[in-house]
Design brief:
The complex is a heterodimer. Chain A is α+β, with helices and mostly antiparallel strands. Chain A has six helices and 15 strands. Chain A has a seven-stranded mixed sheet, covered by helices on one side. In chain A, strands 8-9-13-12-11 form a five-stranded mixed β-barrel, surrounded by four helices. By secondary structure, chain B is an alpha+beta fold. Classes of the chains: A alpha+beta, B alpha+beta. The interface between A and B is large, with 51 and 34 residues.
Chain lengths: 270, 158
């Protein structure tokens, strides 16, 4: 540590993963607070990650459309797992649940790390590209490709929206949702009562979809842990379980608050 | 007359599922996930039934016999062989070690484990791969969208 540097530890809970991130860059600490501050927790950390800035690793060039275009390379050996992209690398000790992240002054390496740690921590569940909503007792997931209306829906119902980009689904005795810190989000969880596959419409309506159709849509909206064959298999099985256990509808909607009456209908309602 | 795949050089070509696969039946389809190639393949009912019958090593004749025992397919051995070879090309099925053909008199039917989870297909359609798709990591992160939100700037304080 350089003279005068302050090593700070920040504790967060990301969708059920208590995580401590230490860093000695005050600029990175500010960035962490700005981006993840809402997810601060006093829980003891399950994972301890040190983030070291590397001047030799520049942020990914702007213009990359999304993470699909930035290849990730994974290498596993015993209790060690290494994930590397063009701009950062992460080394994890899976037994000690510690890790070292070396990357630029940016949060996307942490976003990627959260996804990896989530799959390393939870056996039954998956991360879905979708917005999560709750009325305090029940929860719903609205999923679809970019432009389908996830953020629009979240903006219409800020009091109900937990997150508008990625949500964690836990498949325990009773499936439930947890928010993850991407774009607009706040901590929260709720029993998962239904999944909506979004599309724009001229009026609000929902249509129950069959298993095959649900799988065809949802398989493209999953954050697949392609770095780990075992996690990939578990996620595949979790998606099949999710489709068999949670009602799924196609939701066509106009961008008005009237759509909430459709979203919050009971499953058996027409 | 074309040489049947199952009779190359007088030996039975046998097939077995590759180990690095997982599969589930969802609705009308059975989806096979290749964990090594990170690819999903959707199978119709007949294809799924055949897939399951490859739990143990089998040749195309044995697969056909198992299928015929359950249904009355209006397609032949050739379609089964083509389908099995498609699976081989995709890496989902491997050729087993060729077995020397034994005298017919003592060559019993190859036993195949009865399917435990996939029912015989109701429709007598040929085995078919319905679709295949590479599993991609959807990893949306606002770091890649600097214009959409102030928080999305990669280096907001520089």
């Amino acid at each position: 540590m350089t003279a005068g540097a302050l090593l700070a530890e920040h504790h967060y809970d990301f969708g059920g993963i208590p995580l401590a991130i230490t860093c000695q860059s005050s600029r990175l600490q500010d960035l962490l607070e700005l981006r993840y501050g809402a997810f601060t927790t006093s829980q003891p950390a399950l994972w301890h990650i040190e983030y070291r800035l590397s001047s030799s690793r520049e942020p990914s060039p702007q213009g990359l459309a999304d993470g699909r275009q930035q290849p990730l390379r994974a290498q596993r050996g015993g209790d060690r797992l290494r994930l590397e992209s063009d701009s950062f690398h992460l080394e994890l000790d899976l037994k000690q649940r510690t890790g070292k992240l070396v990357g630029p002054l940016a949060t996307y390496p942490i976003d990627r790390m959260i996804q990896m740690l989530w799959y390393e921590t939870w056996d039954r569940g998956l991360i879905v590209h979708g917005a999560a909503f709750t009325d305090g007792e029940r929860g719903w997931l609205a999923s679809g490709p970019s432009g389908s209306g996830k953020s629009t829906l979240a903006a219409l119902f800020p009091e109900a929206a937990l997150c508008d980009e990625l949500a964690a689904v836990h498949l325990d005795d009773r499936p439930h949702l947890g928010s993850l810190p991407f774009w607009e989000s706040r901590p929260g969880s709720a029993p998962l009562c239904g999944i909506y596959l979004l599309r724009h419409g001229t009026y609000d309506r929902r249509r129950r979809v069959g298993s095959s159709e649900a799988f065809a849509c949802l398989r493209r909206e999953i954050v697949w842990p392609i770095f780990d064959p075992d996690a990939l298999r578990r996620t595949f099985e979790s998606l099949a379980d999710l489709i068999s256990r949670v009602p799924i509808w196609e939701l066509a909607f106009r961008p008005t608050r009237d759509v909430w009456a459709v979203i919050s209908q009971e499953p058996e309602a027409a | 007359m074309p040489v049947r795949l199952t009779e190359i050089q007088g030996a039975q070509v046998t097939y077995r599922r590759a180990r690095q696969t997982a599969w589930r039946t969802i609705g009308e389809e059975t989806i096979v996930l290749d964990l090594a190639e990170k690819r999903m393949v959707g199978l119709n009912g007949t294809a799924a039934f055949i897939w399951q019958s490859l739990e143990t090593m089998a040749d195309a004749d044995a697969v056909a016999r198992t299928l015929s025992a359950e249904t009355s397919p209006d397609f032949g051995l050739a379609e089964i062989e083509v389908f099995l070879e498609q699976l081989v090309e995709l890496g989902l099925v491997l050729h087993g070690e060729p077995e020397e053909r034994r005298p017919v008199a003592i060559d019993p039917p190859v036993a195949i484990d009865p399917p435990s989870t996939i029912d015989p297909p109701v429709e007598l359609e040929p085995p078919q791969i319905l679709w295949q798709e590479t599993v991609e990591q959807v990893a949306a992160t606002c770091a890649f969208f600097p214009a959409q939100n102030p928080l999305c700037n990669q280096v907001p304080f520089s």
